[in-house]
């Protein structure tokens, strides 16, 4: 009898690196958790709700609507590098009894158009999402939730458009990590992508890995416990990756935002993460997993300290995408933030600063 087929081997094609698990740092938690009854999180393979392409500033921006009661402050979700609006299906479903939600595909990701001339920019992304919020939700403030690179974009949005943001939740935000340590999150070789001519090489290397292997490698990299991901979820992720790989801007859609983010790290200024964070007056929740291989959980306390009003939830055993891996605990902290925000009289509005052109 032939042996049963096994899952694709990902070790050689997708090497793992990053800091060790630090489950003991869950003791750093300062955030409150809501005790309200919550619906169960849907299975990992649950299909996301359909969306629509909105014409925003002359560009197609894909937005999914997660049903919920209309009236309370809506919530908007911003995904991370290489992700899409589908990353929020589980968390949005858990929050569905509270308010309506919207998840957006950033430029070049998911089903949104790439930026003109391929000029990816975190500032441009922040301004485009702000324009989408005004177009879809109106002028009122929203609760804003961002993961990884989307956390950086959400922070810039809140700083540049404070009238739009009632509260800010950042899940493993892609904060700068310039420490002299050998076990930082991510891969320091990514800095080589700042060099001219490297995009084609990186794109060909990624293109040489089949979609199924890439999907499983991404699961191992982003989840603290990859065994939570079932075969149906991997098959759906592989099909989506296979479709995205066929887009003419697929490689640049990953490398362009990465270069923009790393450029912000190396050129601190008014729109650096720290400067943007220190300008905010809205309440902030930071969520981090103790097994995050991409952004070290040891950065979480320093990140909280960048904001005037922030609390921290550190989740033991969780990786880089807490909204997918532990949507219940994440939702409880978010709801506690929203309750505190509502009791203090949202929105926290201050005069909008002068917005500089989003050229980088």
From TrEMBL:
Residues covered by the AB hydrolase-1 domain: 74-327
Designated name of the protein: Alpha/beta hydrolase
Any one Gene Ontology cellular component term annotated for this protein: membrane
Residues of the signal peptide: none
Taxon lineage: Bacteria, Bacillati, Actinomycetota, Actinomycetes, Nakamurellales
Pfam families, alphabetized: Abhydrolase_1
A molecular function (GO) term: hydrolase activity
Key words of the record: Hydrolase
Keyword Hydrolase in annotation: yes
Record region (Disordered): 1-22
Gene3D superfamilies, per the entry: alpha/beta hydrolase
UniProt source species: Nakamurella flavida
Coiled-coil segments: none
